[in-house]
Amino acid sequence: MKTGKNVDMLSGNQTKAILLFSLPIVLGNILQQLYNTVDAIVVGQHLGETSLAAISVASPIMAILLAFIMGCCVGISVLMAHLYGSGDREAFHKEACTALIAGLVFTVFLAAASSLALEPVLIWQNTPPSLIPEVKQYLNVIFIGLIFTFLYNYYFACLRAVGNSRTPFIFLAISSVLHIVLAVLFIDVWNKGIAYVALSTVLSEGFSALCCWLYIRLRVPFLSIGRKNLTFSRRALSQTISYSWAAALQQIVVYLGRFLTQGCMNVFGEQSIAGYNAATRVEGFILTPSEGVGTAVSTFFAQNMGAGKPERIKKGFRVGVMINLTVGATIICLLQLFSRQIMALFSDSNVIIGIGVQYLKFMSYFYLVTGITTVMQGLFRGLGKLKTTMAFSGLQIGIRVICAYLLVPSYGVYGIAYAVVGGWLTQALLEGILVRRQMRELDGMAVSVADESGPESIGPLNQTEA
Fold this sequence. Notes:
By secondary structure, the protein is mainly alpha-helical. It has one domain (14-448). It is built from 15 helices and no strands. The longest helix is centred in the C-terminal third of the chain and has 39 residues, at 413-451. The N and C termini lie close together (9 Å). Residues 453-466 have low confidence and may be disordered.
């Protein structure tokens, strides 16, 4: 793993490895956020406040589905990284094949179920009747394209598992530019409606998936899956499910919280809906660096766990925390100075801008907290303790929803901010206690590894193609 585009995570400087691996992931996450944010900007500037509010209502629903699929692929990537670090090539290939088959089948059922449940969910959310037709137009196109969402996230997971985060970023960058061009063409040039904004997203995702498939087929043949080497393993399926479902639920916590609290804001009208959701889109960008570092350290931890190197896991954890604290301090400064200018990208309405500015300025100080929790979550994911990450994410979302419904009627957008912060602080405190215990376990593992005699670890899969 010392040649080509792969980052060597099993030897050398931990800070350098994590930074090199995480940078393309962070930039890729920002580009993924651009998909939805570009939609909001184009719609808000060209189709008006009603269409912007419709996109705002659709956003949490779409984000939950996309994050669930992405979370499943995060779990797949962690499992594959562990197998890659251990050097078990046969198990690695079975996992890749099984995850692809199971993921495709699951995505088809998810898309069908989402389409059937859409209107009842919108009514349950107290969505204004005037917005429902446009929300349905937008989301039904997104549902059709979920198969492309899974494919490109699956291929990204495969490449990241072996230490290659650069190539997925390049393809994502190209598809993001394509998405922006198509969105502007459909709305500004060809005067199409809101469904075509969703179509630009689907076409871009399909292009990205195709690029990844071609790259793997031509440059990384040991990752390529064809009819001749296609296998399905029940044991691999069981492992895939155990890693993926917990990672998926953990991944959607932010978006599930927004979805469940959306009803609190819907009763305040279209401007409040648009202002709050525009702010959460900005928040999505803000959280991507820390989430990218969390994803990177998960792979780092998983590979080193598979290779039996607990000391590198401990050092990598400290590196991840320091990176996210630095990022968080930078975000505080930027939001305190430029939040109004950022919100003005979405709308000319002073009411919409004002709601977003209130939320972002208050929340900026607490992004330090979520930066630390993403590294802690990454630690447990990388060690295969995905039920732990799911449990803490569930606790956080429960606190957020309960507090939101109690506080929003009296405090408006600040009520949601208080609720989110309460969930984050509780999660950070309790999870921090478990992290200290985990570090003591890693100390014990390090002593055990040092005392062991016998054959050396077989190391990572020998891979020169990439």
